[in-house]
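Problem 12. The chain below contains 291 residues. Write out its predicted structure in token notation.
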Amino acid sequence: MQYQGLFVGLTTLDFIYLSDRPLPENQKLVAQDYLTVAGGPATNAAVAFNYFENHGKLLTVLGQHPLTELIEQDLEEHSVEIIDLMPEKRDPPPISSIIVTADTGKRSIISINAVKSPANCSISEDLLSEIDIVLIDGHQIEVSLAIAKLAKAKQIPVVIDGGSWKPGLEKVLPFVDYAVCSANFYPPQCQNAADVGKFLQNQGISHIAITNGEQPIQCFAAGESLTVPVFSVKAVDTLGAGDIFHGAFCHYILEQDFTTALSLAAKIASKCCQFFGTRSWLEDSIGIDTV
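Solution.
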């Protein structure tokens, strides 16, 4: 069955370099490989969602700078429909420069988020027509709030990608059904995973997951705390693994219970870590069941 998903948030242009070692201070390195692709949490999640032959729509700020053509070409190749919140914007899109260390798969990133291009516009109910699930990455708070309210009224599940705490998220959380957060997501006064779980439960969110790389996922659901194991692989590149996890989760949660959806999404994220960049895993013949 094909599902329709709406992904709300940040789009960047990513320049990704593969290096045999981290970049030392005041030194130059020659990369072993490089890629130029669209990036951002909601963007990569939409690409992953479409891996399952779904139809992902990306609600984001893009504009008409010449560099946006590279983003559009990449997303067109992966059948992601772009809905531009600021089509007349002429500034360049946010750009991320990323170095992936080949031996460890770890990445270093310098980037600009959506702070310089906040969108504040009216949202039509038609935008949610035939949508089965909504994901919000927290980078467009006002738009996210409007979308989450509409989705709640229409009983469309809302997933939040809690990569890190962002001011204004407290307004959106009461309309969220599934909070899938990283270990770096710390709302005010929270110091550990238990604090985060309690904080989100107090916002009315009944299904909460906290990911921590290759460590088990900690879950809070139906008043219980439990863990979901993560599939261990030799990581070539961990860039975008969390984003891809969220996109896969949005697919699986429409078919499975919460912990099963998390487990299957973790399998997809583990698969993507075996390839350089955020796209190569999509085309490889390795099946999900072989991870």
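Discussion. The chain is about 25% helix and 25% strand. Students who got a different answer should revisit the alignment rule from Section 12.3.
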